[in-house]
Amino acid sequence: MNKSLIVATSRIIKLVANITKVLSYPFHWLLPHKRFTLPERAAPLLKGRKPGPIPRIIWQTNFTDKVTLPVYLNYLFNRLMAPRFDYRFMITEARREFIAEHYPEVLPHYERLQIGAAQADLWRLLVLHRFGGVYLDIDAHQIWPLGSVIGKEREELYVTTRRGELSNYFIASAPGNPHIKALIDQIINNITGDTVTGVFDTTGPGVFNKVLDKIAVPTVSYRHAVHQGSFTNEHFQYVDKAEGKWTRQQHNTAVVKDAPPQTPSTEIRS
Q1: Domains present along the chain, CATH in parentheses
Q2: Which of 75, 94, 125, 168 is the most interior residue, by most CB within 10 Å?
Q3: What are the CA-CA distances from residue 188 to residues 24, 80, 181, 193, 250 (Å)?
Q4: What are residue 142's DSSP bridge partners?
Q5: What sign for the dihedral angle of Cα 230, 233, 236, 241?
Q6: Cα–Cα distance between 64 and 73 in angstroms, integer?
Q7: What element of type H or E holds 61?
Q8: Is 84 in contact with 52 (CB distance < 8 Å)?
Q9: What is the chain's pLDDT, residue by residue, as a tens digit (270 residues)?
Q10: What's the rounded Cα separation, in Å, for the pair 140 and 227?
Q11: How large is the angle between the packed helices 3-30 and 69-81, nearest 10 degrees?
Q12: Whether pTM exceeds 0.90
C-alpha cells in the first residue's frame, strides 16, 4: 500500500465527511423525526471475486435500524468502499437471537451484560468466530478499499490506535479463529469473575490488549485503514437513546449484573 496516498485520501474523505455532518444539523432541525433504515442484509454492489480466508462480509450492529442522516451516509460510504462485500446488520434483539441459536452456552453470560455496547462487544466476536468477515462500528468508515486492506491471504487483521494499542471497532477474521475464541473466553471469564469494572476492560479493547500480542498478530494502523466519527458523532448516533453512549451509561448501570444461583459453563464450542 502507498501509505502517503492513503493518508492524503483519508484527509479528503474526512473533510467531505465533516461537511456532510455539519449540513446534517439544519437537515434534522427542519426534519427532526426523519430517519433512514439500515438493511438487515444487502448483496454486494459488484460481482465478487474468489475470496480469501476472510469472507467478504461486513457486520454491523446498533440499538435500532432507524438512523439519522449522518449514520446513513456513513453506511453508504462504507458500501462504496467495499462494493464486493455482503452487508449484514443486527439490532439488539437480533443479536440475542443469533447467540441463542449458535452459542446457547454463551447466552446466560451475554444476558448478564446490562449495557448495549458490552453486549455488542461480545456479539461481534461470536459472529466472526462463527461466520468470519469484517466487523465495523456503526461510526467507523473506511479510508481505503476494504478488499485491499485485508488482502487475499490474511486470516485475521486488527486495528491499532493513535497510541499503538489494539482496538475493536475494526476486526477482520476467518471463521473459527483461535485468537477470536481466546478473546471470547476472556470476556466470559471477566463476566463470571465479576472483577473487572467498566465496558472498556470487561468486553472492549482492554480485552484485546490483554489477550493478543500485537507484535504477533497482523495489524494495521487506523491511519491506513479505518477512521471513526468523521461522518457522525455522539449526538446523531444516540439522539433516540435516552441513556446515551456507554461511556455515560456505565456511570449509572453496572456492566455485569449479579450472577444467578448456578453459574453456567464457560466453555464454548470451537
Answers
A1: 3-44+51-249 (3.90.550)
A2: 125
A3: 40, 36, 11, 8, 19
A4: 226
A5: positive
A6: 16
A7: strand 57-61
A8: no
A9: 688 999 999 999 999 999 999 999 999 999 999 999 999 999 999 987 777 999 999 999 999 999 999 999 999 999 999 999 999 999 999 999 999 999 999 999 999 999 999 999 999 999 999 999 999 999 999 999 999 999 999 999 999 999 999 999 999 999 999 999 999 999 999 999 977 789 999 999 999 999 999 999 999 999 999 999 999 999 999 999 988 888 888 888 899 998 776 655 556 665
A10: 6
A11: 150
A12: yes
Grid cell digits, residue 58: 461486513
Cell of 206: 482492554
Nearest to 263 by CA among 182, 191, 158, 164: 191
Could you give the dihedral angle defined by the CA atoms of residues 5, 11, 13 and 15, in that order, rounded to the nearest 10 degrees?
-160
Cell of 107: 447466552
